[in-house]
Design goal:
With about 300 residues, the chain is an all-alpha fold. The protein has helices at about 10-35, 45-65, 75-95, 100-105, 110-120, 130-145, 160-180, 190-210, 220-240, 245-250, 255-265, 275-290. The chain has one domain (about 20-290). About 75% of the residues lie in helices and about 0% in strands. Helix 2 crosses helix 3, helix 3 crosses helix 8 and helix 4 (about 100-105) crosses helix 7 (about 160-180). It is globular and about 45 Å long. The relative contact order is 0.22.
Length: about 300
């Protein structure tokens, strides 16, 4: 059936946008679980547990769907797993040391990296409206962070977790470009599978050296990290298969809104007028991206 004859909610662009918003919701709830662990469990152990849950769920789904576990582009699948694993380690490190909203908005500088990487590596044209959406989203991110040079807020975030968050953003961008390229030929579950396949051998030596046994509700939060990340990966992979990388990641700015909400509800993090202004710009960037049918 021709795309133009479909109802608006059935069009690939709308399906992709819906999947990306759901992925942002899942990832934002995942950050709550990480924050709830409160640094009691090493970041490498959280990533390892998340990977074990993911490989179990993905493997089951692949068996049920009879998906071939061998891809046609093994080097790129492994690169996607490496970039995603490093990004997750960096992001979790930032979450444990920074306010939830600050860690999330720093992570969400990655659309700028993604737009550039998609232009350089995939040859995707950076159209004007996508460029505007990225700029607006970046301004919104700055307003949410409220650095000292703005003359508002406290600023003074620790350098190491900030650099970890920015490093995570860069590797997230590289991982998303890999997903965008792989999604043209590979099954989404196969792309997801290579994330934990790489994460497990990467984090296992760290856990064996510095691991801690979870207690009480730690098990609930660890399971939540695994399940919610899995859902987020499924939806973001679907979304990226329908939308260009730069446009898709501009839509993912909506996770900043979720992070600010959960930070206020769960951790008593304040929401200022500048935070609201930044959130409005972030949401505006998403709407611009969605309305740019040809971008």
């Amino acid at each position: 059936m021709d795309e133009q004859t479909l109802a608006w909610w059935q069009r690939k662009e709308i399906q992709g946008a819906r999947a990306l918003v759901l992925s942002s919701l899942s990832f934002s709830l995942m950050t709550v679980c990480v924050k709830k662990l409160g640094g009691r469990i090493p970041v490498s152990e959280i990533v390892l547990v998340r990977s074990l849950v993911s490989i179990a769920l993905t493997g089951t789904a692949m068996l049920h769907g009879r998906v071939n576990p061998y891809g046609s582009n093994l080097p790129l699948l492994l690169l996607r797993g490496i970039c995603g694993s490093i990004a997750l380690l960096c992001f979790f490190e930032a979450i444990t040391a920074l306010p939830l909203a600050s860690a999330t908005v720093l992570q969400y500088t990655y659309p700028t990296f993604t737009a550039g990487a998609a232009w350089l590596l995939l040859g995707e044209r950076l159209r004007r409206r996508i460029g505007i959406a990225v700029v607006l989203g970046w301004i919104g991110v700055v307003l949410v962070i409220q650095p000292e040079w703005l003359g508002v807020g406290t600023g003074g975030l620790a350098v190491q977790p900030v650099m970890a968050a920015l490093g995570g953003a860069m590797f997230t961008a590289l991982a998303y470009v890999c997903v965008r390229h792989l999604s043209a030929k590979e099954h989404p579950l196969l792309i997801i599978l290579y994330f934990p396949l790489v994460s497990i051998p990467l984090t296992l030596p760290m856990v064996m050296q510095n691991g801690a046994w979870p207690l009480g509700l730690d098990w609930v939060w660890l399971l939540g990290v695994g399940v919610l990340t899995q859902l987020g990966q499924i939806w973001v992979t679907k979304g990226l298969s329908y939308l260009p990388a730069a446009k898709a990641t501009s839509l993912n700015y909506v996770q900043v809104l979720f992070a600010a909400s959960w930070g206020w509800i769960w951790f008593n993090e304040s929401i200022t007028a500048f935070t609201c202004m930044g959130a409005a710009l972030v949401l505006g960037a998403s709407f611009i991206s969605l309305s740019s049918r040809r971008a």
